[in-house]
Amino acid sequence: MMRFGVSAWRLTEGEVAGKEWRDNARRFADSGYRTLWVADHVGHPDPFPALVAAADAAPGLRVGTYVLNAEFWNPLLLARTAATVELMTDGRLTLGLGAGHNEAEFVQAGLRYPPPGERVARLAALVPALRRLLAGETVDDRALGLVGAATGLPATSPRLLVGGNGDKVLAAGGRFADEVGLVGVTSGKTAIHTNLSHWGWDGLADRIAHTRAAAEEAGRSVRFDLLIQRARVTDDRHGAVADFADAGPLDTVLDSPFLLVGSEDAIVEDLARASEMGVDGVTVFGPDADELAPVIARVRA
Q1: Which of 15, 23, 100, 130 has the least C-beta neighbours within 10 A?
Q2: What's the domain range around 7?
Q3: Cα–Cα distance measured from residue 66 to residue 139, given in angstroms and rounded to the nearest whole number
Q4: What is the tens place of the pLDDT at every residue in 26-75?
C-alpha cells in the first residue's frame, strides 16, 4: 500500500510554536500520513528537536529528514545525534541525506561550496560510514576525517534515505541506502529548481531503473519515495500550476508524477500508476497536506 509523508518546514504561523507543531503532527497522523519529514535549510528549524517533539506528540508517526545537507554535518557528530533521536523515538527515525546545492546557504554558514562532484563523492562516502557508526562500530575513514570514531551509544539501525536526481547520487542511494527520494529536477546553485530533467513519467521510469541497477549490482533492494512539488484537488489544473509556466507548456508540465493536481479520481489514478512503476510512497509539503487527506482516505480504504 502506498505510504504518505508530509514535509513540514514551519513550526508555526502564530505565537505558540511548540503547541502548534505538536498539534500539526497529531493532525497529520490522524489524516493518514505515516511520516513527518523536516528539511535541512538555513533559515528553517533545526530538524532533530522538531522531529523528537513530533514523535512524542504522535506515537504512531515515523519521523525523518528529507534531506540533510551532507556537507553541513560532521559524520561522527551526526551519527551521535541520529542515534540519540532513534533511541528517543523508539526506532522511528529515517535519516535522509542529500548532496546539498544552494550556494547561498554555504555562504551564510561560512562554509566552502565544493563543486558538484566533490559533494556527491562525500555523500557516497558518508552514508555507509553512518551505517557503521550507528551500528556501534569504530570507523577509520581519513577521507571523512574519522580516526577511531565511535558514538559510544547503543547500536541503532534507523532507515537511511538518499534524496536527489543525478546519476551518481541515485547510484549511491541504490548501493547504500534503504530508500531513495526522487525529486524529478536537476539541482542548480540556488534554492529554486528550474531544470525539470526527469519530470515526466518516462523520466521517473529512467531514475527508478538507474537506481535499481546500482542496488542489484550491490546485492540489495531499495524503496522509492516521490517528493511531490504540488498537491491540489481542483477542477482548474492550469490555474493550480500557473507559476510553472516558465518551465514549459502547462499540459506538458502537468503530465508528471511529481504533481498531484486534478480531481480526486485523477490523483488516485496517478498514485496507482506510480505504484505500478515501483513507487512505495509519496511526500507532500505541509501546505498541501490537507488537500491530499481525502485522497489518502480513499487509497487506504
Answers
A1: 15
A2: 3-300
A3: 25
A4: 999 999 999 999 999 998 899 999 999 999 999 999 999 999 999 999 99
Q: Cβ neighbours of residue 22 under 8 Å, at least 6 residues apart?
A: 53, 54, 56, 57, 58
C-alpha cell at 96: 535522509
Contacts with 155 (C-beta within 8 Å, 6 or more apart), sequence order: 134, 135, 136
- Each residue of 209-267: pLDDT tens digit? 999 999 999 999 999 999 999 999 999 999 999 998 888 899 999 999 999 999 999 99
C-alpha cell of 66?
528529507
Give dist(CA 162, CA 113) in Å, integer: 20
CATH number at residue 100: 3.20.20.30
- Exposed, middle or buried: residue 50 (CB in 10 Å: 0-12, 13-18, 19+)? buried
Number of structural domains in the chain: 1
Q: 3-class DSSP state for residue 45? A: coil
* First and final C-alpha spacing in the chain: 10
* Among 93, 75, 231, CA closest to 156: 93
C-alpha closest to that of 97 among 58, 69, 125: 69
| Predicted TM-score (pTM) of this structure | 0.95
Could you tell me the three cell numbers for 260?
498531484
Helix-helix angle 201-217:167-176, to 10 degrees: 50
Distance CA 99, CA 122 (A): 8
Residues 8 and 15: their CA atoms lie apart, in Å, by 17
Unique residue bearing C-alpha cell 522511528: 92
HSE at residue 157, side-chain half, CA atoms within 13 A, is 1
Closest by CA to 64, choosing from 24, 102, 34, is 34
How far apart CA 279 and CA 224 sit, in angstroms, is 5
Q: How far apart are CA 95 and CA 207, in angstroms?
A: 21
